[in-house]
Every structure is written in structure tokens, then in C-alpha cells.
Amino acid sequence: MTKNIWEEFAINAKDKMPLYKQIIHQVEGMVHDGRLKPGTRLPSERKMAKLLNVSRMTITLANEEMKARGMVRSHQGSGTFILRGPRAKEVERDLDLPVEFAYPTGEINQGMDEIMRHGENTHLINLAGVGTAPEVHPGIELSQCFSEHLRKNPILLQLPSPTQGYEPLRLEMISWLKKVKIEVKLNEIMIVSGAMQGLDLISRLFLKPGDYVVMEEPGFLGAADAFKATGAKILRITLDEEGIRLDSLENMLMQFPIKFIYVNPTYQNPTGVTMSLKRRKKLLELCSKYGVLIVEDDPFSLLYFEDKPAPPIKSLGSDNVIYIQSFSKYLYPGIRLAVLVANEGIIHNLSKVKQRVDLHSNNLTQIALHAYISEGNLENHIWKLKSAYLERLHLMKELLNEGPYIHCKLPEGGVFLWCKVPKEIPTDRLLEFAVKNGFTFVPGNWMSGVGMFENYIRLAYTHPSLEWLKKGIKLLHHTILEYKEYQF
Amino acid sequence: MTKNIWEEFAINAKDKMPLYKQIIHQVEGMVHDGRLKPGTRLPSERKMAKLLNVSRMTITLANEEMKARGMVRSHQGSGTFILRGPRAKEVERDLDLPVEFAYPTGEINQGMDEIMRHGENTHLINLAGVGTAPEVHPGIELSQCFSEHLRKNPILLQLPSPTQGYEPLRLEMISWLKKVKIEVKLNEIMIVSGAMQGLDLISRLFLKPGDYVVMEEPGFLGAADAFKATGAKILRITLDEEGIRLDSLENMLMQFPIKFIYVNPTYQNPTGVTMSLKRRKKLLELCSKYGVLIVEDDPFSLLYFEDKPAPPIKSLGSDNVIYIQSFSKYLYPGIRLAVLVANEGIIHNLSKVKQRVDLHSNNLTQIALHAYISEGNLENHIWKLKSAYLERLHLMKELLNEGPYIHCKLPEGGVFLWCKVPKEIPTDRLLEFAVKNGFTFVPGNWMSGVGMFENYIRLAYTHPSLEWLKKGIKLLHHTILEYKEYQF
């Protein structure tokens, strides 16, 4: 490749297409026709701006979008590189019909499928999916409480089920949410079938092709799938120790038709980082200024080990924030219930969408959850969970320190560890060895929108029994050694 | 209006736009600028074809699509008329945000909202929504069975929950579906959160703007909403005593990009009509010929009073059919569970969509349903239901005959009556009087895609207690008299 390829770029300031888009377009064309090979390093932003005679901000925007699209990737310190071309679309419709699919099944992340599939294989030690530790699983207690409650009130299953949720449960949520300092009225609450459904309803109500969503890099892959299913694009922003970085956000807000910013501010999935109060305020201020919504996913914040984390962004008081609290981590994932809080107008419209999607969440589980919470059981249960998880966390620390290759920062709460392994170990390859050896985890790059974090892994420590957890970490050390040997 | 307005039509055979579309386009423009007034009768198809110098089939196609779009309506014997212009879009977003919605909230049928809202008002006698008669409600029995089952197998709530559904329940479905003569393999079955979710998943997988769906006129309004939410259009076909008419279907299949045909062949909602076996076979043959899917909604067929109805189209053996059996009518609507049967490739892809929508249906209810069915309870329960509903049906017949204005054909199964009232009574107006008097029903035109069936009502007889049911029908007679007096 000649060094002068960048000079072949034809950027025209008079063209209607914004400059950064022209740049992306040119890069795309050059990758397509082979003039730009995967692995090629892009000139620095400063140099590129000079070469193309555009502002540096234009280059930043182009790079951010190319990262979001997975066209390039950045390595801190070493620059930005063209990624390998898009993977060939999976062809696996074993149906013999002349019918085309409308849903973008080929573009969704396969990570979630694999996490689910591995989770179903009960012979594997599951360090990938987040479950509930068997020693503190509330299933039996929850169902006893439910049967007792129903015995006393046999009419309950015959009551109407509004789309916004079982009313006694929604009323209970008003006081429950005070625990996280959220003050809310009944019509600002709806019950959804898990946070995933909340994200799907929000996506369907607000997003269409051409819209943009900003989310953390790395971040929750299920959320990314829900957004992409609408045809919207995702812009990714990395985190520092205070949460999502805001330095490039304002530029993005000015340049892109952004519909909302999706964040998981407390014990973020997967990094465990908690956004500082100052950052929460600043994010809210920026989004209010640009009239952009914040979607706040808060599944872990009651699982703090010592100090309470900063309160949810929603509690800082704004109609701009849609807040989701899932019960998957506080009870167990199979319960598929979450509470969604937003301004009344948004709730009203989300309910309209939900009505066309499943009418309402099933009443049996809602009645069970209401019985459990209203008798004070959930609060007690969360104390039990925290003590069990803190014990597990200490165990993990000890076990992980037994080998030289895994480095994790201990989180202040939540349900997993974000760990770094040596640079030469791509963890999605390592996973193949792991599955062969009998355990699973989530490779870092599955949580990335731009193919980064290849030498990271997410370890959930809540699913297996203590015995299997120990065994799993031993196998992890063993598997890394095995992989390193195989490499050389 | 001059008689010659039809001669102003500018149809150009050389134009790329199909002729029938040109006609629709012209009608639209003329309604818009006021040259064609609501109520104007269109010339007969034969005459119109001659006037515009096009084939009669072109006129049929244009009329069918205009009906489907709600632009015109037909009265048998008296011709086709321009309808009143589209209603002003509801403006009710009480949110003060500069955010646009992507979901077509303004275009959805408000009927479902009203049925749900009235259902939540427990002071109203509910003849609108389909519920489970209180004297045979299985709630207590189901939950006792569930608790007992869980006590014996305390690990159940800790098991992984695959997106396709709780495996023991799916296995149970293999034998359950034999009752309706459907022979199926495990990978051809998935569990969904109610038939509504099944229809939503199918719509999202297959439909995009520009696609067409054929459904019965009148037909299930929830289904129409699910299809329209994707931007697809609906073509409506009326029924005769053997089910959906097939005489115009083949023309439609040739002319429109139809993705699937949605039918409810047994005790059709709302007419109660059951499609004959001959018609089922012919429909399947036509759809196979044109490579079009059939979506078969079968929520009532086990609720036959005397003779078993014809077997489901799915049982006639074809990969072209997606079959949905809801448990809402066999147990109770709040349970939100249905079984969906299709070719393995379709199930695989529907599961991918479901994974992004809610991961999986909640396990508590799936385990409860499995326990209930596997112990033979559901089969016994359905016998109880049938005897209770037959009793109610006879009661209804007697009560309805007490007044002179309501005429219903008794159905051979299912959960409601489709009744005709005098022509001068538009039943959506009547509903306002009914609600004031303390009861509800579904006005016929809510089930229509083209504003027909204005003097029909759908009466569900399964929801209220027997006492309230009697009271409700008395109130119905009274309300019709009141409305007639008010009119004159």
C-alpha cells in the first residue's frame, strides 16, 4: 500500500453530505475495493485533519462513527486501525420457504445466544451468565409466600390485569423505590417482563433507522441488540474511573440525531465501574440541554458491599430519565420482572406498545412478587445475598491470585469481576478451550461495539455452587496455561 | 358533485406505477382536495372499468386495497362508498420533550385500549373481554398443583430457562398437540408469552413497510395492530359460512407482495364461523402454490360443544403453517402463555427475535403450567369449562330472545356470540350508553378493517358471574330501547 492513499480522498466542502460522512464513505469504498487492508493504521487525527484540509473535530467524529460501526478499532497509544471486513452473514435458515426475513437476524450479536446456550448445558460451570447463588436462591420461599397469599385471597388470579402492571405491585413500588431515593407517582410506574423487555419497548417507541443511541464501551450486549433491531446506530463512549466519559459527548450531541443515552451507572456491566455523583449530574445537565433522553439501567445498585453507591440519575429529578430496575439479580433471572419509571406521558405510550406486544406481564408472577415484597421478604433477602456475594468475592480474589495471568479490580458491589489477561490471549479463542475444559465466561470483546477488550473476561460469580466456583477458577488458570502452551 | 368526476381520472398505462395504484392515488388526491366527498358512491366495477379503460380486475384490486386502507366501504347490494376522511390523529402526549416517537402510536386501533380499560373497571359487567367464568376458574387448583410440584422438586426454579421455553413443558406439548391431530418434534415448538406475543414475534420477523398481510374481515383487532406496527398493510377478506372466502384470494396473491395469511379458522373471533375442512385444504393448497405462509390462530378449538371441529390447518401437514395455541381461554388470560408450532428454521429465527425481546417467558408460570398439564388436570378442566359454557350459552339464548332487537346465531363452540342489532343502531354509539348503564361489549366495527359491521356486537359470555351475566343482558335490552328512543 502506498503511503499516499490518504491523499486520494476526495473531500468536497460544498457537497451536501457532512464532511465526516464523506470521509467514512471514502474509507468504506477503499476497504471494499481492497485499497485499504485490514490492519492498516490511520494517520493521527491531527495529521489526517491536515491531509484532508478539514477540522480535527471532523476527523474525531468520523473516527467515532467508524468505531461504532466496527470499521476501525483504537488501541490506546498505538493508534486507530482498519478492522477486518464485516463477517460473512450467517446463513442458517434451514427453511425451504421463499419468504424473506424483515428482522435483521444476521446483524445481531451472537454472544447472547452463546451465553444462553452454554447456560442450558448444566455440565458446564457457568461463570458467564448471572444467576442466583444456590445457597441463597429465594425460589421456595417466594412460592410458599405466593401460595399462602393466594390461599387468603383466592380471587386474585381473577382480577383484571392492566398493561401497566398489577396495581398492588405498582403501589408497592412507590415505597420500594424510595430505597434508591426515587420519588414517584403511580402513573409514572409500569411493570415489564424483565429489563430486556423494557429496553425493547423503549427502542420500539423511540428508535427508527437513521437514529443514534449512545452507550458505554464496553457495555451490555443485550441492550445493543435491542437498539440495533430497530435499524438505529450505536455510538460508543469509553469509561474512566468515574463512569462514561463526557468529553466527546457534547460534540456527538451537536452532530448526531441522538435519541437517547443508555447507561448502567452503578457497578457497570461489565467493568464494575460506578459513575460518580458529579458525573451523573453533568450527564443529566448535558442531556437536558440537548433535549436527549437518558435510559438508566440499574439492576445491581442494592448489591453494595460497604458504602452505598451514588443515587440513580433518575433520583436527581428529571423527566428526561427513563429508569429500569430489574428483579433478576435481587431474586433470580427466570422471574422476568422489572419496574420501569418515567414521565407519565412516556409510560402511557410505552404501555400502548406493550399492549400490542404481550397485553401485560403475566399476573401469577406479579402477584407472587407483590406478596414477597409487601411482607418485607425482599429487603431481608437482599441482605442475605450481599453477605453471600461478599464471601464469594473474597474467595474469588484468593483463587484468582493463585495464578499469575489474571488481574481484576475488586468491585464495590454487583455480581461480576472484569479481568484482564495477557495481551496475547484473545479471550474469545480462550473460551473455546474453556468450554472444552468444562466452564464458560464472557469474552471482553462480546461486550464491545468496536472489537476492543479482546484480552478481558467477565466472570460472574453468582451462578455456580461454591464448590463449582472454586473448580471453575482452577480450570480457568489451567486453561490459560494450556492456551499459552498451545500458542508457542 | 358532477357526475363526470370519474372522467377526470388520469390513468396512464405507460406509467411505471401499476394501474390499480394509480386509481387509488387519484381517489386519495380527490378526497384530500374535497372533490370527492365522504358518502359518494363509486360506479360499479364494470362501469368504472369501462370509464377508465382498464380491466375489471384492476378495479377489483384498487377497491380491495382502498377497503383495506379504510378509504372506502362496501354495502352488499348497494355499492362501494367513499368513507369519511381519516380521523384526526390523537394528540395526547402529555410529555414536554422534544423527542419524536418512531412507533406508529397514532395509527393503532383504540378498541383494544378500551376493552382493557373497561376490563379494569370492576363495576362494569364485562361482556367485552374474554375471561374465565368464576365458577370454573382454575387459579387455586393451578397454584396448589404448582406449590406441590415445587415442594417435590425444589431445584426447578434454579434451572436454566431457554428462550424456546421450559423443556419439560415443550416435551409435554408434543403429546398435548396430538389432541388436535398435530404431530410435532421438540424443535418445532416454542413457548411464547401469550398468542399476542406470538403474533408480534412473527410480525417482527417477517414484516416490513411495503409488505402485505391478508386477514379475515371482521377479525381479531389485536392481530391487526401487531401487523400494522411494522408498517405492513392489511388486506381484508370477508367470510361466508365456510370461513374466509377464497374467490378473490388468488388474485390478491398474484398482485400483492403478501407475506402471510392470518386466519382464526375455528369459532372465528368475532363471527364464530368455523372453516370447513374443504376450505382449509383449498387455502393450504393456494398458499403452498404461491409460497405464502399461513398464520393459524387457534385459541378455542378444544371448546366444542357437540361435534369436534375440523382439525387445524397445521395438522394437514405443511411447513407453510405457523400455528399458535393460546392457554388464555383454556386456563385464564392473565397466565400469558401460548405454544407456537412451526418448521424448525422458523422457530430458530423466532427464538432469536424473542431473545432480544424478553430473553424467555418467565419460568414460574411455565413450571406451573407443566405441572398442571402433566398431571392430567388441564384435560379435566376443559371438560368442566365446556359444560359451564354450554349452560351459559343456553342461558344467553333464552335471555337474548326476551327482546326483539338482537339476533345471534348460536356458535358450535368458543367463547362469544356475534349478534346483529337493527341497522339504524351504530354499536359504537350504543357502547357509550352501555357504559353509562354499567356494562360493556365489543362494537362490530372495532373488529373491522374497513368500518363495516356497525350494527353488530360481540358478546363474550365467559367473564362475569352468572348473576351478572343475566343482569348484563337485561341491561343490553334496556340500552337498545333507550338508544332507539333517544334517536327519535
From TrEMBL, chains A, B:
Keywords: Aminotransferase, DNA-binding, Pyridoxal phosphate, Transcription, Transcription regulation, Transferase. CDD domains: AAT_like, WHTH_GntR. SUPFAM superfamilies: PLP-dependent transferases (SSF53383), Winged helix' DNA-binding domain (SSF46785). Pfam families: Aminotran_1_2, GntR. One of its GO terms (molecular function) is DNA binding. Residues 17-85 form the HTH gntR-type domain. Its cofactor is pyridoxal 5'-phosphate. Belongs to the class-I pyridoxal-phosphate-dependent aminotransferase family. In the C-terminal section; belongs to the class-I pyridoxal-phosphate-dependent aminotransferase family. Homodimer. This is HTH gntR-type domain-containing protein.
